[in-house]
Amino acid sequence: MPEFVGDKPLWIVSFDKDGDVDSVDADALVAGVRQRELTDLIVFSHGWNNDRSKAVDLYQRWFGKLDTLPSAATRRIGYAGVVWPSERWSDEPIGDFAPAVAPTGAAAARRRESVPAGSPTLDADTLQMLKATFPDGAQQLDRIAELLGTERPDPGTIDELFRQMREFSIATFPGNTDSEGPKDNADSGFPAMLSTNNDAAEVFRDFAMELMRSGVDLDSAQGGAAGIGDIFGKVLHGAKEALRALTYWQMKNRAGVVGENGLGPLLGRLHREFSSLCINLIGHSFGARVVSYALAGLPDGLGPSPVKSVTLLQGAFSSFAFADPLPFDRNRRGGLAGRSNRVDGPVSVCFSSHDGALNNFYPLASKVAGDNAAGAHGDNPWTAMGAVGAFDVTQVELRGVGDDYPFTAGELINIDASDTVANGQPPFGAHSDIVHENLAWVVVKASKLDTP
Fold first, then answer.
1. Which residues span the domain enclosing 267?
2. Confidence band of 425 (pLDDT split at 50, 70, 90)
3. Around Cβ 76, how many Cβ atoms within 10 Å?
């Protein structure tokens, strides 16, 4: 039985890490669309959030905003929420999606908050969650947890942490990248930050510095001391953050697998069963990558695409994913180059300058390698959709409910949502501040739900 948002059904469809869909969920969705004779299905994928209840809560509240907005009486609308195995660290707020009132004006842009650093160790809940999410890397995770708990770390501790992270990455790599950066990492199985050419302490120190720049007080965690053990203690905080970035890198790649191998084929099945059904996709964070790679997984020969719009909210994947060619390597193209023409409507890329997770930490894993050669126009190869938008497309400001947008079928449009997606604490900022009516209105206009 579906859940409901108002009088509209909400089906939850689960996928495993390989993209295999729960057949019971898929059959229930197909049966429900048939029984209710839906004209429109809106599909939403969460980002890094392994808790099904939190994903459902997001869908209830986000679709609740959408449900209050005008739609044509002739539209019979249903909702579907994707659940896929994405890790959630227990020491971070991402995934809570708490309602927020955004700050306004110049003061909001200047305001800097500071939060005390937590422990550099992995708590038991986080370790178990990571091992459940990455079972092939359980051995390395156990050793990494031991090393992060070292009371007096030394250079040998730091070097072993670095090696264990590289081995963890190779053991768990799902094999799906965006072709971002000067070198594709698809064959190596680990991001550039873990290169054997890098100095472990320098890499971890860069992450520690980014924590401090984003508003995390590491000095209080060290008691204000400056001895060699305390310096390496700060490096341990950076090492923990590097592990977090590494698991996100793996999760980003998994999101592509789930989208291409799972969601895309399911959308193809829906189109075969209901050729006139209009499907609209929404994704937050890594979920934006899930729904984008679903375009790559659509079966060939469908005729007019069943996907009528794609809306990406704080997308945690490469700004260059749709680029052709890549501006910093004109012999290569983005992993989704040409896929926007599989949308019979617009691809809306909503981004915010207040997203600390994407503006600060997303690019760091590659930038610390010292290998971020820019293209001819000075483009940073490691920028995220949700931080700056997609590369080289039309940009507009996020507008109010009732306003129009210059949408074009098969084309991307950047929507600067910084004035709305603005609330959140360091170090991740406004990454999860997405439950807003004017963001829901983007979907209404992109999918033409207000048009008979």
1. 3-89+256-447
2. confident
3. 13
b/e map 335-369, b = 16+ CB within 10 Å: bbbebbebbbbbbbbbbbbbbbbbbbbbbbbbbbb
Residue 323: inside a domain: yes
Q: Which of 250, 268, 296 lies at the terminal end of a domain, its last residue? A: 250
Q: Give CA–CA dist 338/342, Å, rounded.
A: 8
What tens digit of pLDDT does each residue of 212-239 get? 888 888 875 544 444 334 556 688 999 9
Say if pTM beats, i.e. exceeds, 0.70. yes
My answer on whether 151 and 238 are in the same domain is: yes
Distance CA 192, CA 447 (A): 39
Q: Residue 168 is encoded by which pair of tokens?
A: 């963890």
Note the pLDDT tens digit of each residue in 70-110: 999 999 999 999 999 886 676 654 333 333 334 334 333 43
Residues 331-344 have pLDDT tens digits of: 888 889 999 999 99
Q: What are the DSSP calls for 4-45, one per residue?
A: EETTEEEEEEEB-TT--B-HHHHHHHHHHHHHHT-SEEEEEE
In a domain, 397, yes or no: yes
SS3 at position 200: helix
Integer Cα distance of 358 and 417 in angstroms: 14
Which one of 221, 250, 279 terminates a domain? 250
> Which position has the token pair 């617009």?
346
Residue 400: give its domain's CATH number.
3.40.50
Residue 64 counted as domain residue: yes
Q: Where are the alpha helices (DSSP H) in 298-408?
A: 356, 364-367, 385-388
Report d(CA 432, CA 244) in Å as an integer. Answer: 17
Q: 291, 322, 413, 299: which is closest to 42 by C-alpha? A: 291
- Cα 277 to Cα 37: distance, rounded to the nearest angstrom: 9
Q: Side chain identity at 44, as an amino acid letter?
A: F
Name, in order, each residue with C-beta under 8 angstroms of 52's C-beta and a sequence gap of 6 or more: 12, 14, 83
Same domain for 166 and 265?
no
Kindly calculate the radius of gyration of the chain based on its CA atoms and give it in whole angstroms.
22
Asked whether 243 and 131 are in contact (CB, 8 A), the reply is no
- Provide the number of structural domains found in the chain: 2
Whether 382 and 371 have beta carbons less than 8 Å apart is answered as no
How many Cα atoms within 13 Å fall on the side-chain side of residue 354?
25
> Is the same domain home to 143 and 201?
yes
Residue 304 covered by a domain: yes
